[in-house]
Design goal:
The structure holds two protein chains of two kinds. Chain A is mainly β. Chain A has strands at about 5, 10-15, 20-25, 30-40, 45-50, 55-60, 65-70, 75-80, 85-95, 105, 110-115. Chain A has no helices and eleven strands. In chain A, strands 2, 4, 5, 9, 10 and 11 form a six-stranded mixed beta sheet that branches. A five-stranded antiparallel beta sheet of chain A has the order 1-3-8-7-6, with no helix packed on it. By secondary structure, chain B is mainly beta. In chain B, the strands form two sheets. In chain B, strands 2, 4, 5, 6, 9, 10 and 11 form a seven-stranded mixed beta sheet that branches. The interface of A and B includes residues 49, 94, 100, 104 and 105 of A.
Chain lengths: ~120, ~110
């Protein structure tokens, strides 16, 4: 069965510092992986996704993630944090072929950015 | 294109009542999925509909049900509400609901059960 683990429910960084949000997955089949961001009182917005091909994936707002099969990881990074990056971030895996739009989410990581 | 819309945005009900939530997907999207978000359990998959057929269902009791109409709009219903049903209910649409499709989320309906 597929699962997702996000290490650290809260991460705090200073403005301009590197952002690193960790995600590890468990999957018996090649995974399709997603990162979403959620701002207060809003739905989820896709940052980036990995399906096949290049393992370094670039997303919106300067975020990127690297799929590492050997480490079963899909960590999210951004070189320089901005105050507007403060939000909750969710890593998700899409389960199997023909499984009808089911995403399994990690528990989320709340990112705080200090001035 | 307009995004995914959900109505109502906020809802207050009492235990034992039932509630219906509505979701309008992005134009051209045929798959609609529903998720429940709570502080304790996080984001959990409820069910997914494609072309008016439920293709996948999460681990929720039968009090949770849904349907999809021919225009792809979807509703979910919760009967005999319990306090634990208080949550943010998110709807997401995608073109086909395949595993590689991007799911676009609506703003959610915040349900409070008193």
């Amino acid at each position: 069965a597929q699962s997702v683990t996000q290490l650290g429910s809260h991460v705090s960084v200073s403005e301009g510092a590197l952002v690193l949000l960790r995600c590890n997955y468990s999957s018996s089949v090649p995974p399709y992986l997603f990162w979403y961001v959620q701002y207060p009182n809003q739905g989820l917005q896709l940052l980036l996704k990995y399906t096949t091909g290049a393992t370094l994936v670039k997303g919106i707002n300067g975020f990127e993630a690297e799929f590492k099969k050997s480490e079963t990881s899909f960590h999210l990074t951004k070189p320089s944090a901005h105050m507007s990056d403060a939000a909750e971030y969710f890593c998700a895996v899409s389960v199997g072929y023909n499984q009808g739009g089911k995403l399994i989410f990690g528990q989320g990581t709340e990112l705080s950015v200090k001035p | 294109k307009a995004g995914v819309t959900q109505t109502p945005r906020y809802l207050i009900k009492t235990r034992g009542q039932q509630v219906t939530l509505s979701c309008s997907p992005i134009s051209g999207h045929r798959s609609v999925s529903w998720y429940q978000q709570t502080p304790g359990q996080g984001l959990q998959f409820l069910f997914e509909y494609f072309s008016e057929t439920q293709r996948n269902k999460g681990n929720f009791p039968g009090r949770f049900s849904g349907r999809q109409f021919s225009n792809s709009r979807s509703e979910m219903n919760v009967s005999t509400l319990e306090l634990g049903d208080s949550a943010l209910y998110l709807c997401a649409s995608s073109q086909s609901g395949s595993s590689t499709d991007t799911q676009y989320f609506g703003p959610g309906t915040r349900l409070t059960v008193l």
